[in-house]
Amino acid sequence: MSLLPMLTASFLFLFCVTPPFITAATDDDLPTAYSLLQSYNFPVGILPKGVSSYDLDKSTGKFHAYFNKSCSFALQGSYQLDYKSTISGVISENKLTKLTGVKVKVLFLWLNIVEVIRNGEELEFSVGITSANFAIGEFYESPQCGCGFDCNGLKLKSESLGRGNSFVSSV
């Protein structure tokens, strides 16, 4: 029995059975989490700076994005956001669903952001029965953990992010 057919068969088996995952932490040629967002028609600013790696199952859209630690920041004059060290969900063109690991503080309550939908030049952030719309232009830059868009007293171009529509009932 020849060794070459066995090796070829083993290679084909592994290639065909391995799930279609992308892991940015292990391959420098793969897109960053931010460029991956853009390929699904989202701006980079819906993720803060500091994603250390991610994985994506292309066949289902299920993803995980990883930070070295949790990430919190306030947006000028408005919301406090909290990203856990791992966030997950399902991504498709213009839609992030089943999100976990991202919270927004509205008044005195912490609410989970469960969905983000791009509708033309607006993003709708849903926390279940309540949602808010923001102009896409407010997300062209990524905020920084700890200081958002006002780091070291220098306000970034996207400082108006917190001035969008407040969370209103979607019913």
From TrEMBL:
Database matches in Pfam families: DUF538
UniProt cross-references to SUPFAM superfamilies, sorted A to Z: At5g01610-like
Signal peptide: 1-24
Protein biosynthesis as UniProt keyword: no
Domain of life, source organism: Eukaryota
Keyword entries, A-Z: Signal
GO biological process annotation, one example: negative regulation of gene expression
UniProt key word Signal: yes
Coiled coil location: none
GO cellular component labels: cytosol; nucleus
InterPro entries: At5g01610-like (IPR036758), DUF538 (IPR007493)
Full protein name: Uncharacterized protein
Species assigned in the record: Brassica oleracea var. oleracea
Source lineage: Eukaryota, Viridiplantae, Streptophyta, Embryophyta, Tracheophyta
